[in-house]
Amino acid sequence: MINNNIKAILLLCCHFSKAKKDEPNPLTPTEFRRFSSWLFETKKHPSHLIDNFEEIVSEWKDPKEKISSDRLKYLLGRGLEMSFALDKWTSAGIWIMTRKDPDYPQKLKDKLDDLRPSILFGVGNKKLLSSGGLAVVGSRNISKINEQFTIEIAKKTAQYGKSIVSGGARGVDETAMLSALESDGTAIGIVADNLLEKSLSRKWRKYIKNNNLVLISAYYPEAGFHVGSAMARNKYIYCLADAALVIQSGTTGGTIAGANENLKKNWTPLWIKKTDEPNTGNTLIKDAGGAWCESNSEKIDPSLFFNFHGKKANDHNEDNKGQQKLFD
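and the corresponding structure tokens:
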């Protein structure tokens, strides 16, 4: 059951269809935090906006002059459009989670603060969002050698009892998630587009039904692919994981951008599959502060990804010199 608080937050923060030209944009996470803080200070709840938004909004004045009353009135006046969308989404098993939801991932709260999504849409086992795991990321166009390496790492991670966290895209992401699931493991997929379509896909559906998989998105469930959205969701992959591994990266694009952002923000320790090739995305990420991971998957003990006691990956890597040569 979607209560009035959730409905008000959806109206303020969500698209329900493809954006139209000159249409006011929903509130960003930071903007929503500013407006909701004002509601709290004036002893109002988002639910009060459902039946009385005209009067409440007339009292509001944004100190940063970004959230106008007209913008709020437009957003809150989309009730019919929201109802149609919710009927479609909930019939497909999609649930909606706000920042106040008890299952909202603590990792996103701790690492992103005001930048965490105001709303998460999802399908599957939401409890997995708090389980952490190994983020496995890489290029869409994956080599045969790196594909096999990804399969083996995902299997080992599943056998170790940890989830694979990835983006669900073709290539490294999808290979890692499916390999873990096929090994009776669990996976967390953070998708940037078409959650509704993916939630109905035969590829994922049986794992959703078995509670081995959760797919989430910070974008409305019918959102089409957008490069900006794909780049922005990278932060959620890293923040939901306990450790991260880049398998294959180009010198430009989402993989290297996400890895560098993670290194800069220090969200989670980062390893990179070792390569002897110079001037690759992998070497650039290593030079930016990541740590090499052994390129022979048979030598890798997945426990070493997780038993770093809060250190950076390269610090942990130094500590293990002289021990088993699982990372070099």
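(Above: one complete record from the training split.) The first helix runs from residue 4 to 13.
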